[in-house]
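Predict structure. Chain length: 551.
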Amino acid sequence: MNKDVIYIDVEDDITAIIGKVKDSKEKVVALVPPKRTGVLQSAVNLRILQRTAKSSGKHIVLITHDQSLIPLAAGAGMPVAKNLQSKPEIPEIAALKVDDEDDIIDGSQLPVGEHAATASAVAAIEAEEKLDTTVPASKKPYAAPPKSGESPRKPKAAGKVPNFGSFRKKMLLIGLGGVLLVVFLVWAIFFAPRATVEITAKTSTQKLSTSVTIAPNTQTDAAKGTLKSVQVQDVVQSSVDFQATGTQEQGEAASGTMTLSKGTPDDATVPTGTGFSSGDCTFVTREQVTVPGATPKWNGSGFSVVAGTKSVAVKATAIGEQCNLSARSYDSTVSGISAKGGDMAGGSKKTLKIVTQADVQQASTQIAEKNDTDAKTKLAAKFGKNVKAIDSSFRTLKADTNASPQVGQEAPNGTAKLTSSVTYAMEGVSNSELDTFIKAATESKLSKEDDQRVYDSGAGSAQLSNFVANDTGGTASLTATTQVGPQINDEDVKKRVAGKKFGDIQADLKSIQGVEDVEVHFWPFWVSKVPSDTGKIDVEFKLNNSSDNGA
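Prediction complete.
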């Protein structure tokens, strides 16, 4: 039935509300008062509204949960609902609290007129009591003594005044007990009964072995061989100290000055880097020089040949103190040029420990061995119990390492440090996705003539191995063992057993090919027949494996 909803404003008076009710074209009018109810906080106004609605052939429903307004609506006989979708009902009027104390009238508080009116009555009653309690002198107020051999009579018990309060309580408890009994019987007969039909089906084992493509962004499809996966990642920060094994000699080469001489007339040019040796030390010129040729010179008795000379700075080709030589002659590599050097000095040498690439690689391996096991366990725990982790999918997505000092640099005290930030990843597949894939893949291999179905996909014990990663996910090998049996539809079974007793159910279901045994469990214990409502029937299957078949 349609209803008209009227929202009452705070400013609306009772006349405006009555006009809106009369103008409504619907038989049911829902009044929605504001938070401050205003004009409806009057029992008189509510009665006027209810009377107006009845005279107009309409039904008013008050939409409110205001506890102060509900009793007023109850007094006016107006239905109330908590909201527009709730079922309206007339609220009950709370029972008045009964004063258990005795009602005592204080005579001193009565008006004078009342005292006068009751005075004569009181006097008459007192006079009557006096007459009743007066015993005549001729009569004895005592009972006659019993005759010989006769037992004395028991005194008559005074009549007890019934306790109406206790009686009311007993009646209330009896009524409540009756209501509870009726409720229990209704529940026990119509709502409680349930049944579980347990069917033992003869099944066979089917083995599934196939290659699957696994990716987080794909959908599970047995026909396409794709399986939706879940990927988890974890970044592990770690560091390790290691010993630098590389060595490098560092120092200064000895240097000094040589005097080059030429005994022939022609000048000779000595280029930069020309070497002059003495023992294991070779010194090279640090600049290009021209050595003049020899010239004749009068010595007083005749002419003599004076060799041309030129000084040049030289430096040893090797570092170390071994080339700090004293003044001496040097073997020349230039024809016609002889060399003689002064003291050579400044040579020094020390051996340094430096970091090599092999050192860094070994430290990286050490970190990987330390972190891989812990990272794999941590990633597997992230999947939860409903996802099967693929152990072979554990891999390193990204690894950043930093050696301090860098490769080729000196390691103070021979010790260096390698820090790494490694991102690990692992793939997993939820049991529900595995169950869907395995069932579909197995059913595609079953013969349609056999009319069979998969009862257990074996997803819990399925194995995913040989994972090979690629850009989108990877590939893996899937193996599973399924239980296949006769095609028995749960809903068909429920319809067949509804309203039947155990014997009839057992005889009916055992006639189905592939059914070995049938058990029916009733609840509660007094139930002996399956409910007619299929929603209260559960069907369970027990598997009796008979053979193994490859697939």
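Summary: Residues 164-191 form the longest helix (28 residues).
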